[in-house]
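sanity check this:
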Amino acid sequence: MYGLLMMGNYLEEILSGQKNDDARLYPTDKRGKIALVDSSTLKVHGTAELVGVEETTYEYFVKWHQTGRFANVPIAPYHEGKTCYSYRLENVVRLVHPVRLNHERGKGMWIELTDSEVKSFGYQKTLFDIRM
């Protein structure tokens, strides 16, 4: 399983159902169940199914990012005119207790999780009767 690193503000919007995708500058070939990881704490806060990636506009990319505390913050004008991507997410599930991962920072937006890390948050499915 892979973990997708996200900033906390955007992560919360996905976990709460306000957003059903993630806007990125690069496509990915990853599909299936992923962990949603807060990039500042390296804690898994939930899981989702990454079901597809679609090209989108720079304007959508900017609008997607200008929410919450970033509502009035200018977004990377040097990406203007470039193709951006929407990662479509389904079956988003918030973990009852976020689980800290043991990874180094700065490895990019994806981290590969070990079997023991997946088990460390997977037990919540049974213990708390949540869908995963």
User: Anything to note?
Assistant: DSSP finds four helices and six strands in the chain.
